[in-house]
Every structure is written in structure tokens, then in C-alpha cells.
Amino acid sequence: MNNKSITAFTLLTATLLFSLIAHADIINTNTTGRNTFSHRLSNLYIPEAVGGETWFDDQNQYNKLDIVASGTAAYADITVAGTVVGTTAEGANIYATDNSGIGIAYELNYSTPGATSPQYAYVYPNKLTFNGSGYSLNGYMHLKYALVRLTQFVPAGPITQLPTVTVNYHNLGASGYPDLSVVTLQGISAQPQITACNINAPGSITLPPVNGNSLVEGAQGITDAPQITLTNCPGAINNIIYDFAATYYNTHSYVNGIFTTKQGDGYAKNVYIQLQDATGTGIHINSPLTLPGYTGSGNYAIPNFRIAYFIDSGTLNTVTAGKVETAIDFTVIYN
């Protein structure tokens, strides 16, 4: 009989058990802020280039949002009542305003970094999923907006119509807290910052000398002033307004556009400087004038004007020879 050697192996198996703890969050919709804010664009500006966009800002207007640690899940998103006209580099929808050269985009984020995925939601419907930190949180929901330049030419006229944006809060499962929708942005209360025109104006204007024996009462030595031009002017405003004012030497006659002149050794007495329009009529000093032909962003020219010496009636015999000098301030105002 053959002997057989039998080796017995004992197979030991071990089971490693993992204890999994699922963290999730609930949005406390009972304490969620329900404020409706207007768009305040005063921290923003109209980008210089087509496709350019500003940063996202909420002007420190935001609603309270408390999070309760739980075994269920929650998320937030937005609904925008507006017309989509494109997307930003981040993938955010760009919505039309009532100025065809300017669009607006939205971003949603929670005040506690890392509490949501993604941290900043750009792509519509801008969904923020709460990650389940295992901790209750007291914070704020930020609905921010950015301006986008849509066209090179931005028409005249302020922005008066913007989308209405609702933030929606969703709790999944038996959370005990109902879903909630809050109209968070509606209307507009402040316009974007204005980027001023570049002003191209002469530093000085020289009038021809006038001989004493040819002096007359009224305007004389009338000289066309070099053209004043305004370049890279903004759009999205109603008008551009300009005026002329005395800088150093005061005003002799506001209504007739007559400025006083520098006095002292070497300077003429009882001779003034008059500012005239193209027809020879005095331009009212410190009186706002509306730039003709303004239609929106672009380049414009101030209407032609003239500079002249001026001598009051009945004072010709009191005039003395000398230099005549004054200073005129040119100001542009955006309305």
C-alpha cells in the first residue's frame, strides 16, 4: 500500500469592515433671508473692449443662509427672467439689458469657502451643491453680477431694464424644511461708473496785436480757436454737457462771455477777452451747453468758437497799452 503524505492547508480569511459616515446638509429655509435687492452698478464700469467683462460684485447686498448638518442633501440654483445673448469665458450666460451694447452675467457663491461644489457657480442654472461638512454653518448667499461689453458702439441712454433673478433653495429627502424661492435681484438703482472722454484742447490761444490807433469799442482781433475734440467718449448716458468758466481772473460779463484779464506792470488796462460762438455772439460763461449730435460712445467735436479782445462802450479813452492775458477753464459733464 502506498503511503500518501497529505498536507492540510488552513485558509484564513479576514474581512476588513469600513465604517462609512455620510455627511450632508440641509438648508434652513425657515431662517433664510428673503430680501429683494436692486442692481447697483456703481462699483462697475463699461469694459473698454468688445467681450470684456468686469469682476462679479454684489455691492454688499446678500441674504442670510443657515446650513444644518444632516444626513440628507441640499443645493441652490437660480432662475433668470431674461434673454440670453452669449456666454462669458467662465461659461456664464450673458443676458441682454435695454442698452444693446451692454450685457450682464451672474455668479452664485456661499460665504463659507469649501462648503459647496463648485465654490463659484457660473454655468446656468448656477447650481451650488452643499458638500456636507458635518457642521452647521451660519453664512450668506451671494448673488453677484458682472457687466459685459457686447458691441464697440454703446448707444446713448442709461440702463433701465435688467433681468429679474430668483435664487432657489432645494432640500432633498425628508429634511423637514420646505424648498424656497427668493426673488433676489430686480430692477436697477445705480448706473455704472463713467469713463471720461479724452479732451484734446489747446493750451493757449494767441490773438493778433492791435495798434492803439485802430482800437474800437466792442470786439476786435477776433480769432478762430483751434478745435476742441472729445475722443473715446462713453455710451449709456443721456448727454455730454460742457461749459466755459473763469479760472484765475474772474468774469466781467457772464451773459456776454467776457472775462477779466491779468493786471499789473506790462499789462493793458480796461481790455477784456470775449468768448464767442461761430456767429459772433458771446457764449454765456458758467452756463452748461449740451454737446450736439451725441448718440453714444465715440468721438465728438465741440462746436467752433472764437476769441476776441473786448472794450466796453465809453471806455476807449481809458485803455492803456500792454499785454492782455486771461485763463479759461473748459469742463465736461456727463449726464
Any idea what the CATH architecture of the largest domain is?
A: Sandwich
Helix percent reads under 10%
- Please tell me what the overall shape is: rod-shaped
What is the count of DSSP helices, taking H or I runs of 4+ residues?
Answer: 0
Q: How many independent structural domains?
A: 2
Overall description:
It is a single chain. The chain is mainly β and 335 residues long. The protein has 2 domains: 24-190, Immunoglobulin-like; 198-334, Immunoglobulin-like. Helix content is 0%, strand content 40%. It has no helices and 24 strands. It has strands spanning 24-27, 37-40, 63-70, 74-81, 84-87, 93-96, 102-110, 116-117, 120-121, 128-130, 137-149, 164-171, 180-190, 198-200, 218-224, 229-233, 240-246, 251-253, 258-259, 272-277, 289-290, 298-301, 305-311, 328-334. Strands 1, 3, 5, 6, 7, 9 and 11 form a 7-stranded antiparallel β-sheet that branches. Strands 2-13-12-4-10-8 form a 6-stranded mixed β-sheet, with no helix packed on it. The chain has a 5-stranded antiparallel β-sheet with strand order 15-23-20-19-18, with no helix packed on it. Strand 6 (93-96) and strand 7 form a beta hairpin.
